[in-house]
Amino acid sequence: MSRIAVAGRILVAAQFALLAWLVWPLTPQTWSLPALALLTCSVALGLWTLAHNRLGNFNIRPEPKASGRLVTSGPYRFMRNPMYSALLVFAFAEVVAYDDPWKILCWLALALVLLAKAVLEERGLRAQHTGYDEYARRVRRFIPGVF
Asked: Cβ–Cβ contacts within 10 Å for residue 135, how many?
């Protein structure tokens, strides 16, 4: 197994561990209007992403599938990693709902893990898809027009 594949598996494990920490303990949360708005946005972005990048075209690990196609429609017109963005918005909804300052550190760690996953994944996409460099110059990674 290559170093990139090992790093990818470690990042996926870290991602799931951080998401588990965000929702732990499974106690009632304070679903304020801001928390619910964030949750709604994350679900909408996630569903929109899945409508354009169907299951089977992508991999949970940051290794593009050999048979995968480059998707540039839907939310991919505005951000290169909309599913990661949806996860970050969901995670922030959890931070707001739990109102626990330690969860902010967890959210920051998750953001770093997803950034590392995106960087690894984009290396593979550049090697696999000739148009990826041009696409990456036009479209931001997580936040349209910003980052």
From this structure: 16
- Per residue of the chain (147 residues), give pLDDT as tens: 788 889 999 999 999 999 999 888 767 777 899 999 999 999 999 999 999 998 888 888 888 888 889 999 999 999 999 999 999 999 999 999 988 888 999 999 999 999 999 999 999 999 999 999 999 999 999 998 786
Tokens 């965000």 -> residue: 22
- The three-point CA angle 5-117-66 to 5° equals 55
Query: Other CB atoms closer than 10 Å to residue 138's CB: what's the count?
Result: 9
For the whole model, what pTM was predicted? 0.90
